[in-house]
Amino acid sequence: MRTVFFTILFFLSIHSNAQFSGIFGKDPIIHLENFDKQRVHWGYFLGFNSYDFKIDQNRITEEILSETTTGFNVGLVGDLRLHQNINLRFEPGLYYTQRNLTFPNFENKFDALREVKSTYLHFPLLLKFSSQRIGNIRPYLVGGVSTALNLSSNANSQDDNSNNRFRMTKWTNFYEVGFGIDIYLEYFKFSPSIRGVFSFNDELIRDNDPNSPWTSSVESMQTRGFFVNFTFH
Predict the structure, then answer these.
(1) Is the pLDDT of residue 11 over 50?
(2) Please, is 184 exposed, middle or buried when counting C-beta atoms within 10 Å of its C-beta (0-12, 13-18, 19+)?
(3) Rounded distance between C-alpha atoms, residue 56 and residue 221, angstroms
(4) Which residues form the Outer membrane protein beta-barrel domain (predicted)?
(5) Is residue 14 part of a domain?
(6) What is the dihedral of CA 142, 144, 145, 148, to 10 degrees?
(7) pTM to 2 decimals?
(8) Residue 82 is part of which domain span?
(9) Fewer CB near the terminus (10 Å): N or C of the chain?
(10) Strands 113-130 and 137-150, how do they pair?
(11) In total, how many domains does the chain have?
C-alpha cells in the first residue's frame, strides 16, 4: 500500500516538476491566488491508516497483544470557509483495516489469535486552522469529532469467541487532531496530512460466558490510530 501511494506521488512530482520548483523558489509564480476565497469547495482524498486498540484490563494478568497492519482510506471532502483562516470540513470516507489480537493463556494458537477486520464508514466534522499563505504553501492544524459505523462489527451475531467470532459495537465516536500543508499547483490544490484518531467509548462486546478467557479480563477496548491522507481540491 505504501508503495502504491509513493508511486502516485512520484508520478505527480514528475508531471508537476516545474510547478514544484516554482513553489519553493525565491520568487514563485503564485498559483490559484483566489482559491481560498471560495465560500464552499469540494475535493476527494486517498490515503492509508494504521489502527490499534488501547486495552485496559480489570485484573493483573498477561497483556493482550494488539498488532497493527496498514489499511487504506478513500473519501470526499466538503469545505466551508468560516473565516480567512478557519474552515469547517466534512470528510466522509471508507476506511478498511485489520488488527490482530493475541490473547494469553492459550496453548492453541488458533484459539489465541483473533483477526479483527474492520470496514468503517467514517464521518468526521473538523475545524481547520490555517496559517497565512506563504507563496504556494499554507500549513494548517485540524481537529474535531467524528463517528464511524463498523460494517464488520458482528454486533448482531449470537456467536462469540467460543465460535471464533469477535464482536464489536457498530458505532464508535472519536476525537481527532492533526496537521497538514496545502500546496497550490497550477490547476489544483494538493494537501498531504497526518491525523490521529482516538475513541471515546469501549467497543468490545463481551462473550456470552462471563468467565470467557477472551473478554472477562477486559475493562475497556478503545480504537486509536493515525491516518495519512492525500487530498485533491
Answers:
(1) no
(2) buried
(3) 7
(4) 38-203
(5) no
(6) -20
(7) 0.85
(8) 38-232
(9) N
(10) antiparallel
(11) 1
